[in-house]
Amino acid sequence: MAKDELSTRDRILNALQRILVDEGSSGVTLEKVAAEAGVSKGGLLYHFKSKPDLYDGLASRFRALEEARLAEARRTGVVEAFIRASQLESAESEAALWALFTALRGTDELSDQAKDDLVFIFNGWSEALKESIADPVTAEIVRLVGDGLFLSALSGLPLPSQDVVDAILARLKAESGES
Questions:
Q1: Percentage helix, strand, coil, to 5, in the chain?
Q2: Which residue has the higher pLDDT, 87 or 39?
Q3: H helix or E strand, kind and range, residue 7
Q4: Considering 7, 19, 141, 163, which has the largest number of Cβ atoms within 10 A of its Cβ?
Q5: How many CB atoms lie within 10 A of CB 30?
Q6: Of 169 and 2, more confident
Q7: Per-residue model confidence as pLDDT tens digits over 55-91
Q8: Which residues, other chains included, contact 163 with Cβ-Cβ below 8 Å and sequence gap of 6+?
Q9: What is the pLDDT of residue 20?
Q10: Which long-range CB contacts under 8 A does 47-54 form with residues at least 24 apart?
């Protein structure tokens, strides 16, 4: 989608995400986000009243993405979808999520709703796994493997090769009864 096809709100959130990736949360200012998005500060404030409101918008967008992934996973197979989603798809998305998760630990810039949206990323998958896997121990093993892949990807730690991930996934699917 071309830049002018995105809504102003999406351009602003994309700008926030890029700044979080490049500079971390300490680099985020309303002026910088507006300039990066190609809007006036007044235009930014029309959509987001404050810096915490920007973070709320980005957290809400990440939650909406996870809700869509979860809905699809419930139709196609939760174990495979969870392990695949845990590997993350882009460095920018990883870095922005990492910055928001870091902000969970002691900033006043994330509202309770934003914190809930970010925690949903973990809890939503956990609930879906428990719903789809009869054995609670197997469900917990799958969750821990996926969370480990996710947190390793977020923090830049080494990940297993794709062949190893595929073998882990095959074993987890067999243990969970997912075909």
A1: 80, 0, 20
A2: 39
A3: none
A4: 19
A5: 17
A6: 169
A7: 899 889 989 988 998 999 999 999 999 998 888 766 6
A8: none
A9: 82
A10: 47/8, 47/9, 47/12, 48/12, 51/109, 52/108, 52/109, 52/110, 52/111, 52/114, 54/12, 54/13, 54/16, 54/28, 54/30
At 94, list the tokens.
Answer: 């990883």
| Mean pLDDT, residues 97-103 taken together | 70
Q: Are 169 and 80 in contact (CB under 8 A)?
A: yes
Distance, CA of 132 to CA of 50 (rounded, Å): 40
List strand residue ranges (DSSP E) for the chain, in order.
none
> How far apart are alpha carbons 163 and 115 in whole angstroms?
35
* Cα distance between residue 33 and residue 52, in whole Å: 13
Q: Compute the mean pLDDT over every residue in the chain, rounded to the nearest whole number.
A: 87
